[in-house]
Amino acid sequence: MRALLVDHSAPGGLRLGEAPVPEPAPHQALIRVRATSLNHGEVRWGIEGAPEGTVLGWDAAGVVERAAADGSGPAVGTPVVTLAPDGGWAEYRVADTDRTGVVPEGADLGAISTVPVAGATALRALDRIGPILGRRVLVTGATGGVGRYAVQLARRGGAHVIAVTGDPEGRGDMLRTLGAHEVVAAPEEAGAPVDGVVDVIGGRQLVAAYEKLGPHGTLVSVGQAGGESEHFPLRALYGEEGRNNRSLVNLQLLGASGLSRDLTWLAEQVATGTLDPGTSWRGAWDKASEAIDTLLTRRLQGKAILDIG
């Protein structure tokens, strides 16, 4: 099969080449991939640290070529969206049926390929915060893939949504269209304390966002796109008056179970237009280096999609 192989001498660190078709385990399906979406973490750190010839890729949407031998998961010919720790940047990938969602017939598989990491991360992070109806929820990195989904899902859940972006004037109208009630340049500008935070950036923004938590509030860290370490000042974690029982937790999506339901529901929302996947770049997979450069230089607001084959 053809695949994007790690090649540290090539532009973007990838080249099109040949790789063996993967053999699924009994609880896995073999998927013929039609599209994949790129995520900051895999192109920023994954390519750099991977051995030559590796096939990476977390997200992929396509059609079941061979159903799981144990009888779990969808049948042959079913359009699906999948999450796995690697293998998405190829004509075929294997995926656990627990991480495979069913896609409505006729849906744009490119748009659906944005669902696994970005959509499911946002959904699980908001679930970890707890009931958000009538609560104040702050989202950092709001114009990125996870951030856009988090803004939309939080608004649908009845939250008062505060979106953080480095360009509130230029991106404010877009974020308000997605569902943000307020758009600010930094967590410190959020005004009143918040009940929950979905943090994609890490570093100083995470520390500042944690400071905005009210009593019993929860910050869910889902990424470190800013590339900075966190340094909390003295007593930042102390539970004095007004700061009781605040939580700081992390979310690692590949460690979660039951994702097939999440992926199926999210795919339906994207297919019907209820959720906007925020496609900012789309092209053939031989243009991967262009997409990666756009993503790493912060010129991309939203998701980059590669059409496979």
Structure description:
- InterPro entries: ADH-like_C, ADH-like_N, ER, GroES-like_sf, NAD(P)-bd_dom_sf.
- This is Zinc-binding dehydrogenase.
- It comes from Streptomyces huasconensis.
- It holds the Pfam family ADH_N.
- The protein has helices at 40-49, 109-112, 115-129, 145-156, 168-178, 203-211, 259-271, 288-296; strands at 2-6, 14-18, 28-38, 59-66, 79-83, 92-96, 100-102, 136-139, 160-164, 182-184, 194-199, 213-221, 247-250, 279-284, 303-307.
- The model has no long low-confidence stretch (mean pLDDT 95).
- Strands 3, 4, 5, 6, 7, 14 and 15 form a 7-stranded mixed β-sheet that branches. It has a 6-stranded parallel β-sheet with strand order 10-9-8-11-12-13, with helices on both faces. A two-stranded antiparallel ribbon has the order 1-2.
- The chain is an alpha/beta fold.
- Helices cover 27% and strands 27% of the residues.
Question: Which oligomeric form is depicted?
Answer: single chain
- Structural shape: globular
- SS-derived structural category: alpha/beta
The run of helices and strands is EEEHEEEEHHEHEHEEHEEHEHE
Radius of gyration from the alpha-carbon trace, in angstroms:
19 Å
Number of strands: 15
InterPro entries: ADH-like_C, ADH-like_N, ER, GroES-like_sf, NAD(P)-bd_dom_sf
Protein name: Zinc-binding dehydrogenase
Pfam families: ADH_N, ADH_zinc_N
Keywords: NADP, Oxidoreductase
Detail the topology: elements first, then pairings:
Layout: E1 2-6, E2 14-18, E3 28-38, H1 40-49, E4 59-66, E5 79-83, E6 92-96, E7 100-102, H2 109-112, H3 115-129, E8 136-139, H4 145-156, E9 160-164, H5 168-178, E10 182-184, E11 194-199, H6 203-211, E12 213-221, E13 247-250, H7 259-271, E14 279-284, H8 288-296, E15 303-307
Parallel strand pairs: 8-9, 8-11, 9-10, 11-12, 12-13, 14-15
Antiparallel strand pairs: 1-2, 3-4, 3-6, 3-15, 4-5, 5-7
